[in-house]
Amino acid sequence: MTTTRFAPSPTGYIHVGNLRTALMNYLIARKTGGTFILRLDDTDQERSKPEYIDGIKEDLDWLGLTWDRIEQQSKRLDRYGAVAEELRASGALYEVFETPTELDLKRKKLLNMGRPPVYDRAGLALSAAEKDRLRAGREGYWRFRLDQARTEWVDGILGPVSIDTASVSDPVLIRADGQVLYTFASSVDDIDMGISHVVRGADHVTNTATQIQIMRAMGGSAPAFAHHSLLTGPQGEGLSKRLGTLSLRDLRAQGVAKEALLSLMARLGSNQPVELKLSLDEIAAGFELSQFGAAPTKFDEADLWPLTRARNQALPFAAVRERIAAHGVPAHLAERFWAVVSKNITTLDELKDWAEIVLEGAEAVIDPEDAEFVATALQMLPEAPFTEATWGEWTAGVKAATGRKGRGLFMPLRRALTGREHGPEMADLMPLLQKVRARR
Ligand code: GLU
């Protein structure tokens, strides 16, 4: 039985980077009829905020990435406490007392000697009496005793990985104030919740060796791990600083279609082409973790626009009927409005501009050298309502009267009526046009 989880820390909103993680875990569960858990890694009480929890749920809802179950680490503290007790009893967790300054000093000494700055395990050598004495002055905290051997796994994306934990400091799992750290809580959860597959960013590769050891110390067996490459900008530059502006809610506010985002993020970095897919079922059908590569993945938000455009232009009228009505387009014009205007929009917000143009008339754009020509032409324009024949008849008359033809004839008139250089066929647009502002 496949069980996956998406485990964001609610210390911020979801961005394109963690969307990849969410999506991959969701798709693996979806493909196999398994379970997808939304797990909130909120043991850091200071930085975790309820509004981010709401935000994360809202963003996943928007995308249709529904979870079968929700778990919250802050509600499982007793369980972590119980496991910690077992690990203390078995000697896997040991108490240490060094202050950050003392650790820093040790680190510098080792570096000066040309040795790797790995924690020296001084805590292990303390006698009960020494610990009592230290406890009088400061709180102890707890490190996990790594077995200093190679830890290996076959990564779903990276292939065989082998990490020598002798070069890794024994990680702190429980702080002096009792706060349980992510590395530990996550390992307990992955075992307790029967997680079969963990997909996450390559920044967690070193954690994986530690977590596999923690899980073994608990008597559990580790899930299958896969680490996807980190996203970079189009030039290969780091994205981490920009991720804040690449949050799903910002992209949504800019009008990015969810299908565009899902289609791009589910294939980017794989050997499959990015194509617009309209449903998660379709996306899941072609999804294979093994098709993703280890190299950093270039992400260019500009790629979202052609996909958004294709998505929106393919929407049936029924999907936009309400939106069009909300912009004031009368019902008898609405279907035609969509048929004519849809080919000229990228985001649905642009419908508002076109509604204004047809209902109120556009602010005319007239070059000084065209002013006289446009004035003459507008006098020849019949009163609204216009028909599909209006444009052809009108421009033929204007051509005969002024001698203008081609672009010199059509472009000034288009700009006078729509205020724009580009747009739908004017013959198709005319029957929608309720007012010609330029006439005034
Ligand atoms: N809360 C962790 C993160 O957001 C989860 C990592 C994991 O998937 O184990 O990085």
Describe this structure in words.
The longest helix is centred in the N-terminal third of the chain and has 16 residues, at 16-31. Among the domains are: 233-312, Orthogonal Bundle (Glutamyl-tRNA Synthetase, domain 2); 316-439, no CATH class. It is of the alpha/beta class and 440 residues long. The chain has helices spanning 16-31, 50-63, 77-90, 100-112, 128-137, 182-192, 205-217, 248-253, 258-265, 280-285, 304-313, 317-326, 331-341, 350-360, 371-380, 390-402, 406-418, 426-429; strands at 3-6, 35-40, 69-72, 93-96, 141-144, 150-155, 159-164, 172-174, 197-201, 224-228, 231-232, 297-298. The protein is built from 18 helices and 12 strands. Strands 1-2-3 form a 3-stranded parallel beta sheet, covered by helices on one side. The protein has a 3-stranded antiparallel beta sheet with strand order 4-5-8. The site of glutamic acid (GLU) has 9 residues, from helix 6 and strand 9.
Primary descriptors:
single chain; 18 helices; 12 strands; 12% strand; binds glutamic acid; 440 residues; 3-stranded parallel β-sheet; 3-stranded antiparallel β-sheet; alpha/beta; Glutamyl-tRNA Synthetase, domain 2; elongated
